[in-house]
Design goal:
26 helices; flat; 5 domains; alpha+beta; about 10% strand; six-stranded mixed barrel; about 700 residues; 17 strands
């Protein structure tokens, strides 16, 4: 089967039958490679009979060599004559002497095994690791018989002439025993001491067991359909609260298992799959030593303990020894599946700083795991990455792309143009011309980049605005320049952040980028509908400073016949930019005001209003971050994204200009330390001292 033939992949719990179906043979020995022959041991972790030949079309003994024997199984060594790459696909199996719990379903949060039985995960762990017992069977008749005998004995002693104190003591003993018997219920967890005491007193009333073997029997006896039906009936009775939520969680797991046709006993492994050897290789180093995958160590531990347990069971070893070996096998299986999940009992390497061994789960989970590193995080062609810097001069739909990066990204397009213009006569010649970076190449690159869009992506891509399309502008240097207003959508800042560039190749992909992914089309947050492209930092400072009214400055109280006259007066230094003035016939007066009314404002506010759309009411107020966001949301709603984009770019330019002209700086004197700081610290230190004292006394 080829990868192309697979449409979808479904990950679910495998049954023992499915695991055996995957397998090409049982691995019974912990050996890997023979130190004398340097070849794989038979029935070991690298066995050629199970996993396939090490050399193409050659059996282990060398009797059959060559492609003409393809498909023949050697009757001497049992190896199939086939290509050696099957060692990446063929799996083996280990038949476990006793069932072992799957650590994900036992210790995962929430514990699936715990949810199904409605038993806390810690209690199930105690049973799995042989430090507790679970009652599997209760005999109602025997319980009744014991209670009757007890009552008979008590009544008989009552008739005897004994002291009142002794009688009271006898009554207490009877009540205590009665309570103990009534507490004997199916699935009740007992400690070792409790189990010993109860089995000595009322051994005939119940059966209890320990270990994953017992748990598997309990799960195998469960009727999931009946359990789901009972839980649904229970939900209808309950109205709200934690109890209902707990039942819903249980029901979700049970119904999920029923839908996927998973049997609960499959959470306990009787057959362990063995990964193909080429996915856990052993590589020979220069000094004759071998570097091996951690998985081989973990598999060897499982096989050794499993074989030892089989032998102990054969010779009918004492129960204490067998139980200890079963627990060790469970721990070995846990370490193989997920070594990091086991609290305090992780298996470490015997060499090299005693590091944790990398288990199957460690290979697939996390940032360096198979999914995120190799499947989702594949290296792709026509892409690059670089540090981002601010591009204050850019329009909202533009980004600055370094020339060298652009030349590499658009290389095939540039080569095509070179061949069309007959500047070179073959691809090799055109490639040499590109490498030489001649003037013609840069001219062609400028032409190729026109009307093309690139995608910018910043990891982690937490929402759809983490990837947006931009029109590239060729720039010098090696850093990508981005518009300051789109930082919020990418959650980017300029302290060393990196961004990836991807080039959509087909016309269809370019069309999609232009119509859906262009940054000027993505002004609103999909989650809330609020603007995601809003002025920040310096732009807010510039707009705030510009629209602020300063009392008692040059030109305060002057009256002007028009906005133009007021701006001219400010340019001629007759009035201050932030002086309170009156302007007649304001072209964008408030809806209520008449054309000839005088409007009390500042030149700064007039300049700010010139960035807004023509038929938008005059905004005669001081703008901070919240007011700016509200204003932009209103403009987007009323005028659409095209006008909103123009306004955003104008506001950005204005904000940067006037934050520069404001000359705003921060000095040490501006950072005032509160006088109550020492008192706050002293109180906190006193509280810490009290907590530490209580902890050392064992109160916490």
């Amino acid at each position: 089967m080829r990868v192309e033939d697979i449409e979808t992949i479904r990950i679910k719990l495998a049954s023992p039958e499915v695991i055996l179906n995957w397998s090409f043979g049982e691995v019974t020995k912990a050996e890997t490679i023979n130190y004398r022959t340097q070849r794989a041991e038979k029935d070991g972790l690298f066995c050629q009979k199970i996993f396939g030949p090490e050399k193409d079309y050659e059996c282990y003994c060398g009797r059959y060599k060559g492609i003409r024997y393809k498909g023949i199984v050697c009757d001497k060594c049992g190896v199939e004559v086939i290509k050696s790459n099957v060692r990446r696909e063929r799996m083996g199996h280990i038949n476990l002497a006793v069932p072992c719990a799957h650590i994900w379903f036992l210790k995962g949060v929430p514990s699936r095994a715990g949810l199904i039985l409605d038993i806390p995960a810690l209690k199930l762990e105690r049973i799995t690791y042989f430090s507790g017992y679970i009652i599997t069977k209760v005999s109602v008749e025997e319980k009744k018989k014991v209670l009757e005998e007890m009552e008979k004995e008590y009544k008989g002693k009552q008739k005897l002439k004994i002291k009142k104190a002794e009688l009271a003591e006898l009554k207490m003993a009877r009540d205590r025993a009665k309570e103990e018997i009534l507490q004997i219920k199916p699935l009740k967890i007992l400690s070792e001491v409790e189990y010993r005491e109860l089995s000595l007193k009322y051994g005939q009333c119940f059966e209890a067991g320990t270990g994953a073997e017992t748990l598997r029997e309990i799960f195998a006896a469960l009727d999931l359909k009946k359990l789901a039906k009972d839980l649904r009936a229970e939900i209808n009775v309950l109205k709200t609260g934690e109890a209902k939520r707990k039942i819903l969680r249980r029901l979700r797991v049970i119904e999920g298992m029923l839908r996927a046709q998973i049997k609960p006993e499959w959470m306990f492994l009787t057959v362990l799959p063995v990964l193909p050897p080429d996915l856990r290789p052993m590589v020979q180093l220069d000094g004759g030593r071998y570097a091996s995958s951690d998985l081989n160590d973990l598999y060897r531990r499982v096989i050794n303990r499993n074989n030892r347990l089989k032998y102990l069971l054969e010779i009918s070893a004492p129960d204490v020894i067998v139980r200890n070996e079963k627990r060790m096998l469970q721990e070995a299986v846990d370490a193989l599946i997920d070594n990091g999940m086991r609290r305090g009992i992780t298996i470490k390497a015997t060499t090299g700083g005693r590091r944790l061994l990398k288990s199957l789960a460690d290979i697939i989970k996390g940032k360096q795991g198979r999914f995120r590193q190799n499947l989702l995080g594949k290296r792709v062609d026509y892409s690059g990455r670089s540090v981002i810097v601010v591009g204050a001069e850019l329009k909202l739909h533009q980004c600055g792309l370094p020339k060298k990066m652009a030349l590499e990204l658009f290389k095939p397009f540039v080569i095509r143009k070179i061949l069309e213009r007959e500047l070179a006569y073959n691809v090799r010649g055109a490639s040499k011309l590109v490498e030489a970076e001649s003037d013609e190449v840069w001219a062609i690159l400028e032409e190729v980049v026109k009307n093309k869009l690139v995608l910018l992506n910043r990891a982690p891509t937490l929402h759809r605005l983490g990837i947006q399309a931009f029109e590239p502008l060729l720039i010098e240097g090696e850093a990508i320049r981005i518009h300051p207003l789109i930082c919020r959508a990418f959650n980017a800042d300029f302290d060393g952040d990196q961004m990836a560039v991807h080039l959509p190749l087909s016309d269809k992909a370019q069309k999609e980028a232009k119509e859906i992914m262009l940054s000027s089309l993505n002004l609103l947050k999909p989650a809330t509908g609020t603007p995601v492209v809003t002025p920040t930092k310096d732009i807010i400072l510039g707009c705030y400073w510009l629209t602020y009214i300063k009392e008692g400055v040059l030109g305060e109280g002057k009256i002007f016949s028009s906005e133009k006259e007021a701006i001219l007066a400010q340019e001629m230094k007759v009035i201050d930019l932030r002086a309170k003035i009156k302007v007649k016939g304001c072209s964008k007066g408030n809806v209520k005001s008449k054309k000839n009314d005088l409007l009390e404002t500042t030149v700064g506010r007039i300049l700010f209003n010139q960035t807004l759309p023509e038929d938008f009411p005059f905004q005669n107020k001081q703008f901070d971050a919240k007011k700016l966001e509200k204003l932009l949301a209103e403009i987007i709603a009323k005028f659409g994204w095209q006008i909103a984009t123009e306004v955003l770019d104008k506001v950005k330019d204005l904000g940067f200009e006037y934050s520069t002209l404001s000359g705003m700086t921060l000095g040490m004197d501006d950072l005032i330390v509160p006088s109550q700081k020492p008192e706050i610290i002293r109180k906190a230190e006193k509280e810490i001292e009290t907590i530490n004292s209580q902890f050392s006394k064992g109160l916490l």
